[in-house]
């Protein structure tokens, strides 16, 4: 492949579009005649303000974000949001959580520090290999919000239908599915995610929040940085933002617009995932760990059912030039993260490798 790149199936930070990397490389020493690179420029400069404004405008266009939602660029990754969400959204001090894997479990544990958190559904009984029925949950009368992780990166599940929150705002961690398909933002109170899975470099979370959920009457002990109103009132520039990550994400937004937007991205992602799932469904050696209806289009965990065999396949895949296929320890086996930037050829090459491995072993 060009530049001696390999197929990188990392769950995050993850592979990025070559075209975007080339553009960035060309601008690293001198951004559009400014005489300096984006890493070196003041976040208060006009040229950087244009970068932020365009990034936000392009994201709004891609996702069709309504005017009554704010887009915030915040540091601390998705993990800081596990705390910021309850700190900012809990008025009654009550929230309902659905736990479908490691990431929602972490968010649930963190939220417990800040109020009464009800676990209203979980798939823990079968090691998070499915999404529970969320059509009629015991939503708490006084819940300030209902929380989900919409795509569990480690367990490889996705909601095919959003939960019925009975009027409560839905908060969704979309870290590992951000911009992988069209999304009706109005269905949510808050959508957020770290960008290093499906968009850009690590160190940035994007928070899309309905304006009426941004409060100014918070406990004064909430750190200034951890208040959504701090970021909303200062255009995400209360302090120095992650300028570099915002710039690179902005490039990816333009790239996605150019290739046809999120409808086209979804079409490509489904086609790509099908190549791998079809193989797993026909294989006698490998099988997917998730119930078919709840399978993620982004993260595909699969196993042989034998730990030693799994380890041997991972080692062989590495030798064959496929990186980061080792599954997370809580699922074992293998996991292929096939985000937006993974080309279909990469998945086809992986399937050819697995087929050959199966034939020879
Ligand atoms: C990776 C990931 C996180 C954690 O992201 P950080 O940016 O490392 O804090 C949270 N949620 C999901 C779904 C993830 O995939």
**Unreliable parts:** none
Strand content: 15-25%
Largest sheet: 7 strands, mixed
Radius of gyration: 21 Å
* Unique ligands: pyridoxal-5'-phosphate
Order of helices and strands: EHHEHEHEEEEEEEHHHEEHEEH
Provide a descriptive summary of the structure in words.
The strands form four sheets. The chain has a seven-stranded mixed sheet with strand order 2-10-9-8-5-3-4. The chain has a three-stranded antiparallel sheet with strand order 11-12-14. The two termini are 28 Å apart. Helix 3 crosses helix 4 and helix 7 (261-282) runs parallel beside helix 9 (344-360). The chain has helices at 18-27, 46-63, 77-89, 102-111, 228-233, 243-259, 261-282, 307-319, 344-360; strands spanning 7-8, 69-74, 94-99, 116-122, 146-149, 151-152, 157-158, 170-173, 190-194, 205-210, 287-288, 299-303, 322-323, 334-337. It is globular, with a radius of gyration of 21 Å. Strand 3, helix 4 and strand 4 (116-122) form a beta-alpha-beta unit. The chain has 361 residues and is of the alpha/beta class. Residues 12, 77-79, 103, 149, 153, 173, 175-176, 194, 197 line the site of pyridoxal-5'-phosphate (PLP).
């Amino acid at each position: 492949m060009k530049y001696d790149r390999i197929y990188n199936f990392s769950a995050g930070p993850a592979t990025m579009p070559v075209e975007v990397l080339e553009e960035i490389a060309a601008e690293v020493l001198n951004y559009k005649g400014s005489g300096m690179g984006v890493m070196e420029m003041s976040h208060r400069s006009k040229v950087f303000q244009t970068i932020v404004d365009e990034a936000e405008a392009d994201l709004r266009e891609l996702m069709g974000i309504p005017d009554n939602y704010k887009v915030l660029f915040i540091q601390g990754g998705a993990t800081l949001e596990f705390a910021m969400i309850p700190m900012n959204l809990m008025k009654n001090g009550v929230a309902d959580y659905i736990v479908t894997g490691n990431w929602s479990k972490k968010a649930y544990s963190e939220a417990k520090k800040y109020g009464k958190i009800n676990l209203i559904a979980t798939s823990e009984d079968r090691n998070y290999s499915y999404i529970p029925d969320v059509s009629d949950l015991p939503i708490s009368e006084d819940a300030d919000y209902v929380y989900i992780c919409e795509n569990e990166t480690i367990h490889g599940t996705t909601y095919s239908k959003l939960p019925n929150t009975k009027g409560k705002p839905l908060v969704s961690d979309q870290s590992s599915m951000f911009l992988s398909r069209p999304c009706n933002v109005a269905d949510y109170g808050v959508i957020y995610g770290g960008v290093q899975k499906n968009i850009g470099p690590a160190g940035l979370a994007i928070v899309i929040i309905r304006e009426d959920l941004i409060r100014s009457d918070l406990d004064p002990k909430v750190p200034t940085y951890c208040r959504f109103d701090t970021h909303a009132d200062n255009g995400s520039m209360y302090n120095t933002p992650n300028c570099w990550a915002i710039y690179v994400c902005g490039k990816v937004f333009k790239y996605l617009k150019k290739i046809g937007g999120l409808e086209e991205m979804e079409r490509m992602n489904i086609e790509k995932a099908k190549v791998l799932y079809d193989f797993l469904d026909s294989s006698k050696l490998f099988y997917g760990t998730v119930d078919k209806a709840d399978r993620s289009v982004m993260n595909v965990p699969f196993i042989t059912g034998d730990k030693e065999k799994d380890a041997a396949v991972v080692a062989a895949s590495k030798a064959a030039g496929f990186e980061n296929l080792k599954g997370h320890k809580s699922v074992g086996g293998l996991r292929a993260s096939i985000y937006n930037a993974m080309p279909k050829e990469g998945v086809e090459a992986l399937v050819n490798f697995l087929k050959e491995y199966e034939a020879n072993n």
